[in-house]
Prior knowledge:
Blueprint: H1 3-29, E1 45-51, H2 60-65, E2 75-82, E3 89-91, E4 103-105, H3 111-145
Antiparallel strand pairs: 1-2, 3-4
Helix pairs in contact: 1-3
Amino acid sequence: MSFWETMKIGASGLQAQRLRLDVIANNIANSQTTRTEAGGAYQRQDVIFMPQGSRPFMPTFVAERRGIDTRTGGVQVNQIITDETEGPRVYDPTHPDADEDGFVEYPNVNPVVEMTNMLSATRSYEANLSVVEAAKRMALKALEIGR
């Protein structure tokens, strides 16, 4: 694997995890949003990854049989999905978004889950950064040997 391929793989991981962190931050910021432009409470979002250069939902053995190169060169975001599960309904007849029975639907965002996801994304980002830094150090050492 060349220096540039290593950098490309690390950079794709950095970019994917940065987007994941943005989505998680958006979920946390909207954890109390009871009214959106679309109507109803905010629905949490999640990021789906797939190997870079692959086709979604195609098993490796099918791709190999069709002569499709299954080697990957990193990760890419396949899609950002919306979690359609209902959020908690709380009785609060004084809330401006309460229904006729006095219940308010809150977002389906669990701050504990989001913070756990944020820690995971941060660790993944740091791991990809370590790959990029290690490749850079190796390239610099190779240049030193050539002097």
